[in-house]
Structure formats: structure tokens, C-alpha cells
């Protein structure tokens, strides 16, 4: 067992973990934060995406013990985030989800895209979101939802 | 599946990391971004007794310029190279390659040194760094040695690293003002590993011209010839390069490797 000190959604945590525990299991099983979903557990599907020090990472292939001194943010921690509020509304309005399994990872990646690539066209949105797989929607609703947020933000800026 | 149980250390110096790796009592493996090792651990394809995390070693995280050479610490991430903002004598070439690797969440953790050490024939840095004529600085308990990237990758998932050695730095020569670069990767889905890679660099001012055919069944095929970097050598030529390898009898493989090389040459010719 190893000790690890990190923050999760702004709260300081000192935990003891088996080194093999990945961040996704740590969040779900030890912190009971179950918004983070685990799909493939080898980095491909994106369902487990969370923020580490503000950047999206795959929690299934990031060891919890390697997050020493890091700041982890899950979907639960973004409840009052203004971009997330816009995305939540847009995903509902544009049918960006059906079963909801991919949605936490989709939202974390979409938020990063909105903040990093404000000028993205639909093709760029698709490329940026290509690391998040959805078995239900066929992606069109997801692309439309992100488009809606990007366009609305452009307008408020203009 | 979940990984086997292993111990974990995160030393703060290269010396400490090398000492941990040199101890033969336990099967030890270095870990950087864990973006290749993580999946292999989860699938129990690797079952180490100790992981030595090298990402807290400051010198491995640095990017610097040394007399026209770009020097990357092994733990520099793909995302850092994608985003730029570092002194760059290679004129943006690395940013373009980095942006095409996997997905942002993987690029935020995956490292250039880990990618080379993993030596997946389909990995982007394997082909790109060889085409750029990069050198790999390898550190061990008895000191450092420099290996050209071309000789560093010796096979599928196989490098010239001896047990206990680490990739410390990668040194990439700067490009001259009229150098021309082209890189092309054929994928069926954005961000996946390459099915065929082509890379060319023609830098007459440095008398350097190289074409690389990557994502093959061994280390990339390297041809140092100014003519090939200038003009599409044709599918028959690519077939001749692949002859005798497991891809050599496969018309589809010959076709896509030719197309990748042709696209790289075309990209280089419009600069
Ligand atoms: C879904 C997905 C898609 C991907 N797509 C691509 C792609 O399109 N193109 C591509 O190029 N890559 C791709 N990758 C791989 C990614 O680029 C990895 O980051 C990279 O291969 C390994 O870097 P790492 O730092 O994560 O290494 P790790 O996973 O930490 O280590 C990989 C191996 O290298 C060893 N190692 C690590 N660092 C060193 C060092 N400094 N010295 C000696 N040995 C070392 C480890 O012991 C291990 O054996 C993908 C990965 C995933 C999960
Ligand atoms: S569960 Fe992590 S990428 Fe699929
Ligand atoms: S909504 Fe079901 S997987 Fe995306």
C-alpha cells in the first residue's frame, strides 16, 4: 500500500491505495464518485475521462498513486462550472445522449474543446472528440450540441 | 481485468531511478505517461514487481535549445509539443506530428521518450524522429551514450536499450531555412495508430535527405537519397522495399505504404 495526497473536486484527500489501483477505480470505489464511467479500461473509449490539473486524462490508465499532489476534477466537481452548464443544456436540447454511459467523458472532453479551440468547425469538433466513443447517438447530436455552445459563445463575445 | 500487484516508487533524480532499475532482485519497469504501459498492465500483458515512475525527475521534463538542436527530456508530453511555445529550431514540425497522436486526453500524459522506448512500429514518433535524424541520449548507471534514433529502434517493440537503461533525452537537429518536410499517416479513424506512415525530410543546406516508410513489420525502412525525398518513386519501388518482409506479398499493404510516402513527398514539395 502507498499513501497519496491529492485533491478531488477541490477537497484535500490523504488516501492509502494499492499502487495498481487506477484513478478511475479510486474515484468510484474509494471516493464513491460514480459519475466517472469505466468502459474499455485500456484507453480507447474515453468514458473514464476526468481532469487532472485542469487537463483531460484517461482515469483507467492513470495510476491513482501517480496523482500525488495533483488536482483531480470529475463531472461532480463541475456542477457549477459555467461552460458545463451550457454543455448540459445543449446536450439535452440536441439529443447528445441516449443511455448516458459515454456522457461524463463526452462532457469533460467537450468542455476542454470549447475552452481550447473556440474556432473549431464541425470537422475539427469531430476530430477533437474522436477519442470518446458513443454506442447510441451516432454522434450527430453530440456535434450539434457542441456547435450550439461554440456558436453561442462566439455571439456573446461579439 | 486489473493489473497484478506491484510496488511503486517515484524518485526525484535520474540517479535514484537508475539505481532502482539496476537492482535485479525485483522485475522493475520504468513508467512515464502510462499510456502504453497502462493498457498492458490492465490486460496483464506485463506483470512487473516494481514500477519506477520517472515523471517527477525535473531534467526529464525540460525542453531546451542547444546550438540549433532541440533537446527534449524523455518525459515531455505529446500535448506540450502540440501546443508549442518552446524555442523551436525544427520550425513547427513536431507540433504537427504530435497533434495527430491519439486523442488529447492521451497526449496530455503520453511522452516522447515512452513512445520511443515502447517502439511500436505504428507509433508516430518512431517514424518521425528517425526521419528528422534525431539522436537518443540513453542513460545507465555507468553513464550516457548517444544512439541515432535510426539504430535505437531495432524491431517490433524492441530497442537497443540494455536492462536498467533509460531514455534521458532526444536531440533533434534544427531545420535549415529551405528544408522541406512531409509527414503522412494513414488511419481509418482519427487518432488511431497508423496503418502506414510516410515521412520525408530534404535539407540540402545540411546535405540531409531521408525518406522513411513506417508502420511496417519491423523497424521503419529508411532510405537516405535526395531523389526519393523529391519525387514519388512509384509503387513498384515501395514493393521492392517491402519485399522479403511479412508485408511484402500483400498488395493492400504495398498500396497504402506507397500512398503514405507519396502524400509525405507531396506535402514536402509545396513548402
Ligand atoms: C487509445 C490510445 C491511442 C494511441 N494512439 C497512438 C497513436 O496514434 N500514435 C502513437 O504514436 N501513439 C499512440 N498511443 C500511445 C501513446 O502515444 C503513448 O503515450 C506512448 O506510446 C507511450 O508513452 P508513455 O509515456 O505513455 O509511456 P509508458 O506507457 O509509461 O511506457 C511505455 C514503455 O516504455 C518504457 N519507458 C517509458 N519511458 C521510458 C524512458 N524514458 N526510458 C526507457 N523506457 C521507458 C516503459 O517501461 C514501457 O515499457 C496511443 C495510446 C492510447 C492509449
Ligand atoms: S475506460 Fe478509460 S478509455 Fe475506456
Ligand atoms: S449515449 Fe449511450 S453510449 Fe453514448
Bound small molecules, deduplicated: flavin-adenine dinucleotide, FE2/S2 (inorganic) cluster
Would you report the number of β strands of chain B? Answer: 14
Low-confidence stretches of chain B: none
Shape of chain B: globular
- What is the count of helical runs of chain A? 5
Helical/strand content category of chain B: alpha+beta
Q: Determine and state the CATH class of the largest domain in chain B.
A: Alpha Beta
Q: Write down the CATH class of the largest domain in chain A.
A: Mainly Alpha
Give the strand order of the largest sheet of chain A, numbering strands 1, 2, ... along the chain.
2-1-5-3-4
Q: Count of helices of chain B?
A: 11
Terminal CA distance of chain B reads 48 Å
The rounded Rg of chain B comes to 18 Å
Can you summarize the main beta sheet of chain A? 5 strands, mixed
From the coordinates shown, what is the CATH architecture of the largest domain in chain B? 2-Layer Sandwich
Which fold name corresponds to the CATH topology of the largest domain in chain A? DNA polymerase, domain 1
- SSE order of chain A, as H and E? EEHEEEHHHH
Give the integer mean of the pLDDT values of chain B.
96
Write structural notes for this entry:
The complex is a heterodimer of chains A (158) and B (271). Chain A has five helices and five strands, in the order E-E-H-E-E-E-H-H-H-H. With 158 residues, chain A is α+β, with helices and mostly antiparallel strands. Chain A folds into two domains: 2-77, Beta-grasp domain (Ubiquitin-like (UB roll)); 80-157, [2Fe-2S]-binding domain (DNA polymerase, domain 1). Chain A has a five-stranded mixed sheet, with helices on one face. Chain B is of the alpha+beta class and 271 residues long. Chain B folds into three domains: 7-53, Uridine Diphospho-n-acetylenolpyruvylglucosamine Reductase, domain 2 (2-Layer Sandwich); 58-173, Uridine Diphospho-n-acetylenolpyruvylglucosamine Reductase, domain 3; 180-269, 2-Layer Sandwich (Enolase-like, domain 1). Chain B has helices at residues 14-22, 37-42, 78-83, 93-99, 104-107, 112-118, 124-131, 149-152, 226-230, 235-242, 251-269, and strands spanning 7-9, 28-31, 50-53, 63-66, 69-73, 135-140, 143-148, 153-155, 158-159, 166-173, 180-186, 196-203, 208-214, 221-223. Chain B has a five-stranded antiparallel sheet. A four-stranded antiparallel sheet of chain B has the order 11-12-13-14. In chain B, strands 1-3-2 form a three-stranded parallel sheet, covered by helices on one side. The interface between A and B is medium-sized, with 33 and 31 residues.
